[in-house]
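Worked example 2:
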Amino acid sequence: MTSTVPNAIQHTDAAAPPITMFGPDFPYAYDDFLAHPAGLGQIPATEHGQEVAVIGGGLSGIIAAYELMKMGLKPVVYEADRIGGRLRTVGFDGCDPSLTAEMGAMRFPPSSTALQHYIDLVDLETRDFPNPLSPATPSTVVDLKGESHYAETIDDLPQVYRDVADAWNACLEQGADFSDMNRALRERDVPRIREIWAKLVEQLDNQTFYGFLCASDAFKSFRHREIFGQVGFGTGGWDTDFPNSILEILRVVYTEADDHHRGIVGGSQQLPLRLWDREPQKIVHWPLGTSLASLHGGEPRGAVTRLTRTAGNRITVTDATGDIRTFRAAVFTGQSWLLLSKIDCDDALFPIDHWTAMERTHYMESSKLFVPVDRPFWLDKDETTGRDTMSMTLTDRMTRGTYLLDDGPDKPAVICLSYTWCDDSLKWLPLSPKERMEVMLKSLGEIYPNVDVRSHIIGNPVTVSWENEPYFMGAFKANLPGHYRYQRRLFTHFMQDRLPADKRGLFLAGDDISWTAGWAEGAVQTALNAVWGVMHQFGGATDPTNPGPGDVFDEIAPVELPED
């Protein structure tokens, strides 16, 4: 059992195809596209060496730049902060370099198959992530309203938690055709996926997550809804998502994005950094030994301060040094609100409906705080109870989620004292790292009165509040009810034949453009969409045996809801 409240039907058929992030909005096989020996496509030889701006050095930007380089184009990467974006791995001053903290993305589902392609490409190792009640987690403590329950499996929890699990299963089955959609996604049955999802989008676009629960007979009990919000499923409580569109939640549960998570050994930021330095063996135009790093002299260009359209439908980029360059194509992978605030933008960059969609994008806040400790003391057994001294902890106290991360019993370890979202994250915002740590230790001391966590801390805390990061202004996009049309405009922006000629050439990418924001898979998929768009812009094409996302767009385009 991988979660406190499992993701509906538990499949036991070993022959069943694995689930992937295949739809439901755009059921395209990005993993097959990447694995095909024909590659992602080619551009005319006359265009080789042409420069393409890639704005943002997060995962989406680095993947887009890497694939464009392989096609023979010259990506020019701009990055305001550091390569990695929300794949940010940091160390602790004065501590062993092997001790790291994942300030952003830290757990990845196996259904992220396009992401896994790149993890494998750069030879990174993954291992099970210690989520609540996962096989990688020795024990979990659920602490609500001052009452704690110790559990190694869900069967160790009181009956009410299993009642909540049953209610969630029934709610998904009755209100969202869960089993039918799950089966269609596993079998990649595109007509059936589209049939189910088209109906649900029309029915549920205006419904919140909480409203969806309340509308179900299975969740008549307020107590059950409260427990579900505080403890949740997969990664913990989801009450911070209650105001969001239920469509956002269904995308997660259908594709098992919140299940069976794995972490990247040594830290997730290694993925974009290794791609930056990687010298591909199959590359056009450039000599073997070429990498993104070598094309840039080792470092990307700095922050973009201005974006304009200039004669000939070119994109002109000004960076923080005052340098001005003009490109026939550009890919923007940063947080979309940057185009409204920190970057001086020409209104002519996008159609007005796309500007509206960016303005209406809703971002969730998120905070974390980590401390290094001398050893995984939580594995010590309490002499009285025989239980672990401390456990992965879900609580309604300020900390909400506490994760215990170790690399063996005799090595220093790391505790994520608190991981929170939205209002819970905003509560931490005015506090310094040490003030945050003191409040967190006090909360945990009330749950574990006989455990002296402080005595094991060997370094200063590291923390992040993504809403306060100047180049992010939030952790990730999460659509509110009624936002489906906005998200469709942003996701489909790479299909630029549908745009006026003077609105083409600048392509949006990044996880907040995707249908599955908050997941690295969305960053990968939208990067590949943008690569297809740039290739098309330069007169290139895919191999007929490996059609790209734009080639099949009309067959599987996201549902289009009426505007009137």
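Confidence is low (pLDDT under 50) at residues 1-14. Residues 159-176 form the longest helix (18 residues).
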